[in-house]
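pinging the channel bc i need a second pair of eyes. not urgent but kinda urgent?? the chain im working w is below, pasted from the shared doc
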Amino acid sequence: MADDQNPQLPLEPPSGGNGGLPPGSPGAANLQPINIEEEMRRSYLDYSMSVIIGRALPNVYDGLKPVHRRILYAMFREGLHYNRRFSKCAGVVGECLKKYHPHGDSAVYDALVRLAQPWSLRYPLVDGQGNFGSVDGDPPAAYRYTEARLMKIAHEMLADIDQDTVDFVANFDESTTEPVVLPTRVPNLLVNGSNGIAVGMATNIPPHNLTEILDATITLVNHPETSLKEILKVVKGPDFPTGGFIHGRSGIAEAYRTGRGRFTMRAKASIDNIAKDRKAIIITEIPYQVNKSNLVKRIAELVLDKVIDDVSDVRDESGRDGMRIVVELKRGAEPEIILNQLYKHTSMQEGFSMIFLAVVNGQPKEMGLIQAIQHFIDHRVDVVRRRTAYLLARAREREHVLEGYKIALDNLDAVIKLIRASASRLEAREGLMERFKLSTRQSDAILELQLHRLTQLAKEEIIAELKQIREQIAEYESILASEKKLRGLIVKELEEIKKEYGDERRTIIQDETAEITLEDLIADEQVAVTISHSGYLKRTPVSTYRQQRRGGTGRKGMSTRDEDFVEHLFIASTHAYILVFTNTGRVFWLKVYEVPDVGPAGKGKAIANLVALQPGESVRALMPVRNLEEEGKFVIFATRNGTVKKTPLVDFSNVMSRGIIAIGIEKDDELVAAHLTDGKQVVFLASHEGMAIRFEEDDVRPMGRPAYGVRGMDLDKKDYIIGMAVTPKEAPPKSTKKRAPEEEEPTARMILSVTENGYGKRTDIDEYRMQSRGGKGVINVKTTARNGMVSAIMLVKEDSEVMVISQFGKIIRMDTSGIREAGRSTQGVRLLQMDGGDKVAAAVVIPPEEKDENGELIQ
């Protein structure tokens, strides 16, 4: 039972400061009352700092976390050098656990394995022999089977460690000491990178190219005031061991400036021909830290789930020669589209968020590229200064001994006589010190001098060595006295490292202007875009509609339901935009290549699945545009309540997937139509009650997107606009000459009006006199109980075809040449026999289709 539920147990300890223990009981005097909140805060902060400093974050100087530093140092002390034999990893793990890292063996072995994996580290520090895992995510063999030794570059990180170059601290049980940081000659933090999650902070430093980092380091050693702009000319960006591409320099530059930034990694893929009309995508490099096996598995799943079509086979052909993933495509497939889908749906494209966070003087600090390099330079300055001071002290000690040798050799007979006359070593040493003014160290060295060193040749060697030592002392003193000379020595050593270990960049970095976009992966070709009356879109390459001789069988353009039909058909580039305007006045953008290609006879995809329409929102106009920033182009709008507005096309160039406002719409109003113009057209508006107005587009001044527009037509109380047409100001001259097939289509100059009861008429546009906008207009159709109100108007040519559909689903398709041309104030002729209560729901112009030699439509 819980304490708070037991009435026999006190909820609070008795007062008295001893925690409830009776006075005089054992331990009562050792109890101290504490505040639980303060204790939790203090304990958690201690834990946090322990994780930050002792486990998760690398040191800025050597770029290593404690476990990695201890592994390398343990291997170094064990003698596992690059030119020695391999040793079992079990021994390395045991040595590290025994002396330096009192944690689990799996933690040490996992860290050791990563140091040896060439796909994890740009420059591996451990040379592994055996199964150390794979890029497919396979685990390494147990440490009793694998062997390891240090790589040659790891010795550059441990160089001069025994020359008092770094501080040492006692290990966990004070049985030995370990270095606080390694005296590395390699800027390992940037070269191999690091990632780790601490408490409340994380680091994610990508690997870089050693040659570039060393060049930048040398530049900053010689010229500390060098700007980041100049450094970026040297350091192009991260360089991953797995190669691939990096897209976007802005994120890299931001991270190098502030310590945080983001860029995109992409796999390296090529398109190869494997057979006639058969191609394959060959993936040879993948993004950093991506599991190859999972990538292949993911591609196979997308193919099985029909997310990616036109893939016939996926296989991994990687081997000794390198990585090779083959994605075979079906005959006639478009490889650029498949490649784009692979980038979109798989880890062939991944983001990388850079966080330059490391431990500096015992504290975590976020820094930019120059600060990180400068910390390494400061470390090298300190290491070289301490090493030089150490070597100077050793040289002076040797000089002191050699000076004693010289004195002894100059007085050889007297020295020998004194030693022979002495009763003990102590007496001989004191005699030498007293007679020749030698130090204890010199006297001991003389007494230990071997007989063969008394020859004339040995004497000359000692003199030569003394001269050499004095030259070294002078050199060491000059280095310590000159900051410039000390930095010159650092540069010399960095250049040696560069010459020995520098290599070519593996990852290709592309500028923003050269980034591969979705459009770059889609072939720029002409396609036929068809839109059905019910809102289904599809595209088909124009080449699919192969040229046929007269009387050919033709080709089916779109498969639709019985009650549906093709309403729009236009030819556009796959890189063009389709502007989608809705009844609420919003506009969406679609790239033509985003319209699905579902085969010549396919139905397509509902437009509601391509743009984010809101409930109750419907599409009112679609407009193909190649260049949204084209000057001199306008979009003119008409609303149900008679408002018109003209907006420059360039105002719609800020493409956003969620859509933007195209025209301000009143609460009781909605958009009816939108057309693309050159700003010098004539606008025709028609109303439900049979009125129409025609005015010049110049009467409408250009306005911004959110504007509500101006009055286009003065409507009666219950009347509303049902359609808009836009025509050139002047009609082209009529020609009796038969038009050749390659000539332009004749300009539409007839207004076809269709009424609710199935009547219609054609009227020449010029019969409607020009007026100023905002007027009542003129009669378009004489509306009576017989023909009903106007349902739709459209601009037609002599050879246009129209489709009329009723609310009950009755459909008729006819040539406009069969509809009598009549004046404005007429009722028209019957187009469709209507049943009782039925009315015309819609009437549209059908896009031109191929006809056979008899003039029959080809379906």
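so DSSP finds 17 helices and 40 strands in the chain. and The CA atoms of residues 418 and 431 lie 7 Å apart. — does that match what u expected or am i reading it wrong
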